[in-house]
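Notes to self after the Tuesday call (sharing in case useful).
The group wants a holo model before anyone commits to mutagenesis around the pocket. I volunteered. Ligand is flavin-adenine dinucleotide. Logging inputs and output together so the record is complete.
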Amino acid sequence: MQLIECPWCGPREEVEFSYGGQAHVPYPADPAALGDEEWAHYVFFRDNTAGVWAERWMHATACRRWFNALRDTRTHAFLTTYRPGDPVPSPDPHPTPTPEGAANG
Amino acid sequence: MSTAPATGVPEHPSFLWRNPDPKPSYDVVIVGGGGHGLATAHYLAKNHGITNVAVLEKGWLAGGNMARNTTLIRSNYLWDESAAIYEHSLKLWETLEEDLDYPILFSQRGVLNLAHTLQDVRDSVRRVGANVLNGVDAEWVDTAGVAELCPIVNTSPDIRYPVLGATYQPRAGIAKHDYVAWGLARRADEAGIDLIQDCEVLGFTTDGDRVTGVRTSRGDIACGTLALCAAGRTSTLTDELGFRVPLQSHPLQALVSELLEPVHPTVVMSNAVHVYVSQAHKGELVMGAGVDSYNGYGQRGSFHIVERQMAAAVELFPVFARAHVLRTWGGVVDVTPDASPIVGRTPYENVYLNCGWGTGGFKATPGVGWCLAHTVATGEPHPYNAPFTLDRFVSGRLVDEHGAAAVAH
Ligand SMILES: Cc1cc2nc3c(=O)[nH]c(=O)nc-3n(C[C@H](O)[C@H](O)[C@H](O)COP(=O)(O)OP(=O)(O)OC[C@H]3O[C@@H](n4cnc5c(N)ncnc54)[C@H](O)[C@@H]3O)c2cc1C
Ligand SMILES: [Zn+2]
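Result:
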C-alpha cells in the first residue's frame, strides 16, 4: 500500500485518506460576473494531467485536515505534500523515472 | 465462420488483418484502436461505404480498456437518452456475431442489480418502470426470485446488507472482449481500412478551426476528418488541440479467480456492497468494483480496492471463500461529472469526440461505433448520440446517470 505523508501526522497508509481532486482551483473572485461558460468551467472542468500535478487529500481517519500533494499521475508516485496556503513546491529534483508504457492507456 | 473446425477457437489474431504502414493521407483518421475505434471503422465501411480510413493505435490493437474490461453488457439505464443508446447497442450485440461472421461468445445470461436498502428498492423499482416505458426488458424480482435465478447469492436475512430484491434484465449478458475486437478488426481490414499499430498520435496540424493532420510516432498523416476514440487518454489529445473536456482519468481494476466448474449462472451487481461478478465461459469468476479514488494513468491501482471488492464478493457469495485470485489488473477510465459519455462535435469543424464512457463503455461498443460513424459520415450527430454533447456541461442539460443506481459498468 502507498504511504502518504500527512504534513501534520507523517506517513500513513493510503486507506486513511480521501481524495479531493485538483488543487488550487479558487472560488471565482467575482461570482456575479460569471457567465454560463465560466461557471461550467469552475464547476465541471478540471485539468487531467498525465504527469506531475497538484491535488488535494484529506486525512480522514486521523487529523481530518486537508492538504496538497504533488503526484505523478503516470506512476502514481507522490513527490511531496504541503499544507494549504503554502506555495506550490517546485517538483522534486529526483522524480521517479517513468517506465515507458506505464503511461499507456 | 473462421473457426478452426470442431474447436470453436478463432484463428490467431495476427492473421486476421494486415499490419500496414501509414499512408500520407486518409479521408478519416480515428485515434485509438480499442473497441470504439474499431467499431467506428467497421460501421464507416459497412453503413457508409467510407473506407479510406486509418485507425491509429499507440500500442497493440485493443490492448487498452478493451483488453481489460469485465465485459458486462446491459441497457437498463434510468434516463431516456441512456436507455436509447445502450438499447440500440444491445440490439446490435444480438446480431453482431452474424454481422462479423466471427464467434464473440455473446451470452445473454441476464443481470441482477441487487437492492439492499429501502432506498435501493425504491430506486430500482423506479428504474424498472423507466426501462419498461423505454422498451428495455426489465423486471423487479423479490428475494426468493433472486435465490431462484442465482442460488449461490446469500439471501439470508441475517447479513449486514440483506438482499431485498433485484432488478433483472434477462437480455443482458457478457461477451468475449478479445474476439469482439478481432472480429471488428478483421471486418474493417477486409473493407480496406488500415489498422496501424505502434503509432502514437503526439500532436496535430491545424488551419483555423480545422485539423489538417496528425503528428505521430510514425510520421505526419493528413486527414479529412478526425475522430478521437482514445478513452482514458483523451485529455492528453484535447490538451494538444487546445480545448478542455470535463474528464478525469482514474484507475479501474478487476480480477479473476482460477477456473471453476460452472457455479454462477447469471451476472450479479451490487452497488451497495459494491462488487459485481460473472463467470466467464472458461470458468473463471470475473469481478470488479469501483474506480480508485485518485487520478491515474498507470494502468494499475491500489491493493486495498481489490481487498474490498473481494470482501464484498465473499459477503454476497459465501461459496467464493475458497476460490483463489489468479490475476488482478487495471485500466484507465475517463469519467465525466454526470457519468454519461461525450459523443459529438468539438470546437473544430472536422473533429469528433468520443469519450467519457468511464467504467461502462464496453457494452456500448457496437452502438457507439454505429452512431460515431454516422456523425463522421454525415457531419450530423445520430439521434442516439445527439444528447451527449460536450456543450451540455455549459447548458446544464446533463444526463445524470450518477444517482441512477445502475451506473457502474
Ligand atoms: C477493469 C475494467 C472493467 C470494465 N468493465 C466494464 C464492463 O463490465 N462493461 C462495460 O460496458 N465497460 C466496462 N469497462 C469500460 C470499458 O472497458 C471502456 O469504457 C471501453 O473499453 C472504452 O472504449 P475503447 O474500447 O475504445 O477503449 P480502449 O480499449 O482503452 O481504447 C482506446 C485506445 O486508444 C489508444 N490511444 C490512446 N491515446 C492514443 C494516442 N495518443 N495515439 C494512438 N492511440 C492512442 C489506447 O492505446 C487504446 O488502445 C471496464 C473498464 C475497465 C478498465
Ligand atoms: Zn493528518
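Two things stood out.
Residues A 6, 8-9, 59, 62-63, 65 surround zinc ion (ligand 2) (CB under 6 Å).
Confidence is low (pLDDT under 50) at residues 1-6 of chain B.
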